[in-house]
Amino acid sequence: MSDTAPHIPDDAAILPGGSTMPLLGFGTWQITGDDAVRATATALAAGYRHLDTATVYGNESEVGRALAESGVPRDDVFITTKCPPHRAGSERETLEQSLEALRTDRVDLWLIHWPADGPVNTDLWRALVEARDAGLTREIGVSNFDLALVDEVTAATDVAPAVNQIEWSPFLFDAGTLAAHRERGIVLEGYSALRHGTLDDPTIVSIAERLERSPAQVIVRWHIQHGVVVIPKSVDADRIRTNADVADFSLTDEDMAAIDALGRS
């Protein structure tokens, strides 16, 4: 592709604590070592201002290094990391290790990475609330929680997750799930949007060809027009830039409905 700067969308969600969460983020799952430094640096240079990592990704230090060396002010970047449930009882220590690796004194969003068994979820959630109240994270949320678990931790603490990060793509679209999160004031964040054949789907490919865009751009744009956070990942510099180049076109209502209809859940 050309060296022209991508048209980065400025769409964002306002979270309960007042944070502005860009709907477009850069995902770093399965990107480690020098690849993680290079990919994160490329994303920041392209204009991404939202980085998603996790303790179990093993790349927080690389993400932190890329941000520190980028010249982009820390306060201009929304950083998410996640606590694995097997660190229950050591949540504060886990977050402090993440902060050290990321070279920051607080993250913008800290998530329970996936549900634990039984009452541990509530204990974990209380620890996240305490970390938020201590100023170590601006917002707190969950990942891979169903709505019953979301309601369980909310009822136990009177604090609802700001965000629920779940697998989400055109093939998994469910209007009821999206509406239920909105009714609770919870932002839906999707991952793995560009996997499992979505890039080859005939409906998406047809829309992309008509708009002279890539299928990935169409899928990213679909998320944004639904108000759903999307975190595409890649180690390829051209793809990193192209995936973000979605602010200068829109999908029609007919396009959105056609993509919605691909939902298989």
UniProtKB/TrEMBL annotation:
Q: Where is the NADP-dependent oxidoreductase domain?
A: 24-262
Answer whether the UniProt record assigns the keyword S-adenosyl-L-methionine to this protein.
no
Which key words tag this protein in UniProt?
NADP, Oxidoreductase
Q: Name one Pfam family in it.
A: Aldo_ket_red
Q: Which SUPFAM superfamilies match?
A: NAD(P)-linked oxidoreductase
Supply the InterPro entries for this chain: AKR, Aldo/ket_reductase_CS, NAD(P)_OxRdtase_dom_sf, NADP_OxRdtase_dom
For the keyword rRNA-binding, the answer is no
* Entry similarity comment: Belongs to the aldo/keto reductase family.
Protein's name in the database: Aldo/keto reductase
Q: Which organism is it from?
A: Nocardioides aquiterrae
